[in-house]
Amino acid sequence: MSETSPIIIWFRRDLRLTDHPALHAACDSGRPVIPVYIHDDLVADLRAAPKWRLGLGVGAFDDALREKSSRLVLRKGNAIEVLRKLIADTGAGAVYWSRLYDPQSTKRDTEIKEALKDDGIDAKSFGGHLMFEPWTVETQAGGYYKVYTPFWNAVKNKGVDAPLSAPTSIKAPETWPQSDDLDSWNMGAAMDRGADVVRPFVQLGEKAAQSRLGAFMARGVGDYKQTRDIPGVDGTSNLSENLSLGEISPHQCWHAGQRALEDGKQGAETFLKELVWREFAYHLMHHSPRILTDNWREEWAEFPWNEDERRAEVKAWKQGRTGEPFVDAAMRELYITGRMHNRGRMIVASYLTKHLMCHWKIGLHWFEDCLIDWDPASNAMGWQWSAGSGPDATPYFRVFNPETQLDKFDKNRDYTSRWIAEGRSNPHEDALRYFDAIPRRWNISPGDPYPEKIISLDEGRERALDSYKNRNF
DNA sequence: TGAAATGTTGGGGCG
DNA sequence: ACGCCCCAACATTTC
Fold first, then answer.
1. What percent of chain A has pLDDT over 90?
2. For chain A, which terminal residue's Cβ has fewer other Cβ atoms within 10 angstroms, N or C?
3. What is the mean pLDDT of residues A315-324?
């Protein structure tokens, strides 16, 4: 392989041009660059909304590359076989990619790197998805962090790499290899609810992410510390969706936040801390991957969780028909937009795992079905935090009261009236979208009365606390 | 990044 | 002036 041979960039959750170390290195080399996206088993296994959103992201990224006279080559199959075929087709001498951190991707990528090196190919993995590689942060004792605040203190002054510029040009190969038609991948096949309902809420692609970051830094970040907690206000950064697919890098968000901090914007530090929560989730997933599948505190396996997904109250929770306005509003926001305000996430998680005493895995899986900003590490950490089974988790006895939360965080009922139609003479248009999105078999309509509470808050709370008190661990 | 029960304090009304 | 009660406002404890 000569030093002029093409470099394949294997894109995964890094669908951007700006601040992309692997792409940057490849373009710097002066060699032709072949961007590829591979639909392998891990992509096939994605759940409905994340998979659909990924399809949109791949399409948008191909468009962005074409503006640079490049393109995204799409191939389906086993990743190492696809790469070997592509190398044979193009004479590529190198494969670069940005690292992922979930155990399945890590295993796959490790095997592929070894196989490619055996073939004499220059296989290189780069950072970019995280500001702090999980193995570079350790406690005095040499272990990993299990509590957020010490983790924050350990990283906040470490320094974050300055974002790399987007390549001015991406050298094309002499001929482009064959590429699948994205439509043939059917990435939206599992979206059995209306993708067209969710679509208007999608913030697609790198440019949209950049302008959102800019707008947030110009306006929202000043009040972020207060307004981020109020779901009726557009007070969050709204970047989770783009961070999830790497349409923007955390480094760029961090440096923007740092500049806001220097400008005296009050909320900027809170924003930086939120970015570091994402890093903390990856840190935990890397050092303790079973956080994805098992109670991180193993004793919680003994807890009398309801684990049957078919129960009526689970169905009511998923459908946003529990009779608790805050819970239902949040669950419908999730269904309609593919995202949920963080305050809502805490409330619905507390309600499911405490008032309904359902296993957090039920909630984790539903979020994985519905979230267009789905992130394996954050989702698992969040659910185990809420359930009390995770590291640095909220104690089980800390039960959110959805009614009290309404008075604290949705005083004017802006949020609940935006997402709930029943019982209102003049429902919000977003609340009505829910009825376009749901499957007909749910058999409900906007004119129905608002559902009765499926459980009294007092009873649910008492039952959960009794179970906790009588636990045998 | 709770909520509810219980405890403490201090001001005001009143005999 | 004093004791007593009431109660709101906090603080602490408990789950």
1. 96
2. C
3. 97
What pLDDT is recorded for position A2? 58
| CA–CA separation, A91 and A7 (whole Å) | 9
Asked if A374 CB < 7 A from strand B, the reply is no
Domain A130-160+204-287 fold is 1.25.40
- pLDDT, tens digit, for every residue of A200-253? 999 999 999 999 999 999 998 999 998 999 999 999 999 999 999 999 999 999
Domain coordinates in residue numbering, chain A: 1-129, 130-160+204-287, 298-469
The strand B neighbours among A residues 330-359, by Cβ under 7 Å, are 342, 346
Nearest one of A436, A447, A461 to A195, comparing CA atoms: A436
What is d(CA A229, CA A217) in angstroms, rounded to the nearest whole number?
A: 17
CA-to-C1' span, A393 to C13 (A): 21
pLDDT bracket for residue A433 (50, 70, 90):
very high
Q: Indicate the SS3 state at residue A240.
A: helix
R_g of chain A computed on alpha carbons: 23
How would you classify the pairing of strands A122-126 and A94-98?
A: parallel
Mean pLDDT of chain A: 96
Q: A81 Cβ partners below 8 Å, 6+ apart?
A: none
Nearest of A82, A50, A66, A95 to residue A74 by alpha carbon: A82
Q: Does strand B come within 7 Å of the CB of A397?
A: yes
Segment A384-419, tens digit of pLDDT = 999 999 999 999 999 999 999 998 999 999 999 999
| Superfamily of A298-469 according to CATH | DNA Cyclobutane Dipyrimidine Photolyase, subunit A, domain 3 (1.10.579.10)
- Of the candidates A38, A65, A56, the residue with the CA atom closest to the CA atom of residue A166: A65
Q: With bands split at pLDDT 50, 70 and 90, how would you rate the model's confidence at A473?
A: confident
A465 CA from C5 C1′ (Å): 36
> What pLDDT does residue A194 have?
74
Residues A259-264, mean pLDDT to the nearest whole number: 97
Non-local (6+) Cβ contacts of A82 within 8 A are A36, A38, A40, A75, A76
- The sheet that has A94-98: what strands, in order across it? A73-76, A33-39, A7-11, A94-98, A122-126
Residue with tokens 């999730």: A334
Answer whether any strand B atom is within 7 A of the Cβ of A280. no
pLDDT at A282 > cutoff 70: yes
Q: How far apart are CA A180 and CA A157, in angstroms?
A: 45
The whole-angstrom separation of Cα A128 and Cα A163 is 9
Instruction: Name the class of domain A1-129.
Output: alpha beta
